[in-house]
Amino acid sequence: MICHCATGSNAAAISCDDVTHSAKPCLDYARGNGDEKTVPPKCCNGMRTLSDKAKTAEDKEVACKCLKKIFKTPMLNLVESRLNVIPENCRVNVPFKLSKNLQCKEYVN
């Protein structure tokens, strides 16, 4: 399923499938598995890929909305504090704070 969430006249170049693929390696860490201080390299690589792909405002909005949907999935039982540290620990610039309560419009407008 592809998320067409673009707000402008140009279609976003990134899809929810892209976002899911990039975020998937982070889910075990975000569930609380493994060393709290060490984000897995595959997670960091996925976040870098996502950051590289999400260049336009439309792309960032699609990425944010898709991440929000993933992070709010109850059965994942994600740990908020782990989500928060992923960008910093991976040294990746993400235009929004990773959280189960992402406020996408606040960050991408």
Descriptive report:
With 109 residues, the chain is mostly helical. The chain contains six helices and no strands. The N terminus is likely disordered. Helix 1 packs antiparallel against helix 3. The chain is globular and about 40 Å long. This is Non-specific lipid-transfer protein. Keywords: Disulfide bond, Lipid-binding, Transport. One of its GO terms (biological process) is lipid transport. InterPro entries: Bifun_inhib/LTP/seed_sf, Bifunc_inhib/LTP/seed_store, Plant_nsLTP. GO terms for molecular function: lipid binding.
Uncertain runs are 1-9
The share of residues in helices is: 40-55%
Major sheet attributes: none
- Shape descriptor reads globular
Class by SSE composition: mainly alpha
Query: Radius of gyration, Cα only, in angstroms?
Result: 13 Å
Distance between the termini: 25 Å
* Tally of DSSP β-strands: 0
Measured by DSSP, the beta-strand proportion falls in under 5%
SSE arrangement:
Elements: H1 16-23, H2 27-30, H3 41-53, H4 57-71, H5 80-90, H6 104-108
Helix pairs in contact: 1-3, 1-4, 3-5
Distinctive features:
109 residues, mainly alpha, 6 helices, 51% helix, disordered N terminus, lipid binding, transport, lipid-binding
Short description:
This is Non-specific lipid-transfer protein. GO terms for molecular function: lipid binding. This protein is mostly helical and 109 residues long.
